[in-house]
Amino acid sequence: MRIRHLGWLTGLAAGLASAGFADATLYAGQPTENAGITLRSWGAGTIEDSTETTFVGSRSIKVLTRGMLSGGWVVFSTPVDLRADVNAPDKAMRFTLRFAGTSGGATGGGAGGPQAPGGLGGSGRAPRGGPGFGGEGGFGAEGGGPQAPGGFGGPGAPAGGGGQTTTPTLRELRLVIETSDGKRTETVVPLQNLRTDESGWQSLSVPLRAIAGLRETNGQIAKIGFFGDATGVFYIGEIRTLSEGGALQGYMAIQNTFGSVFTSRSQERLSIASGDELIFFGVAENVSTPVEYRWSFGDDPSQVDGTGQVVRRRFPKRGNYTVHLTIADPLGVRPPATAKIQIQVN
Predict the structure, then answer these.
(1) CATH of the domain at 300
(2) Which is higher by pLDDT, 301 or 119?
(3) Kind and range of the H or E run holding 13
(4) Per-residue three-class SS string for 48-61
(5) What average pLDDT does the chain have?
(6) 315 within 8 A of 278, measured Cβ to Cβ
(7) Which range of residues forms the domain containing residue 303?
(8) Residues 37, 84 share a domain
């Protein structure tokens, strides 16, 4: 069975606009000397001002990490006062990042192969402002439907062709926060399933209350350390705080053996022939925090039969099956989103 490409439905800007009011900007692409910031390399890593790529402003911060103990520090000459935010239930710190090798582009998948996180997109485009489905591309890149996080290229997708094209070499980012009272707190954040805008920037939010021990500090952020779990390069385009709370939202898309795509939003039941294989795609909406996709193919949604944004399932026997999807916050801060669909096997 050939997987048709599914493309990005909206840009990152829509997600940012709906994420909430930005409370404080810690870095916005200005030269570090103008921003009151000093960069300090750590271990075998390096950190430096860069003009190679920008998100806002004229600069970004380039980090070379060689492991969880090698990277760099962003040091603020005047500590940033987040005392009110660290005790708020919905406040998060958002980092806009770009990983070396991630490139932008028009409609289309990544560099080919079902595991390239580049755009689930194809050769067709949905009508502008439409529901997000159109042409041979399934989810059209210019469709007005909900945002599809991550993506998967496939045969015929040009290398570097679609919005997001490569998985970061880093799988986790270690963030260390030091406050002006000398206390350090840290968290490790997964980098999979991050959404990418068409220029290659990715948005990563970390709920402040998920950072263990931060509430026990004075809330005055003196410096932030950036470290990866492997050797890799990434750029920091922006650091800011915002309100991002409430339950997660999302749904599942299903592709059948003929390449037709259905969603759990548009229908409650899907009929297939015995022996058919379906491909299930999890879609999280309006979120820049990391998420996990958990699948159940039985009557008990708490039983996890598969994980990941995309799973395949063959149904060899006749009968009725219920497929459940849970989109969960791995940090346990936000309530999960759930979706389900009935599969009738004839």
Answers:
(1) 2.60.40.10
(2) 301
(3) helix 12-19
(4) EEECCCCCCCCCEE
(5) 75
(6) yes
(7) 249-345
(8) yes
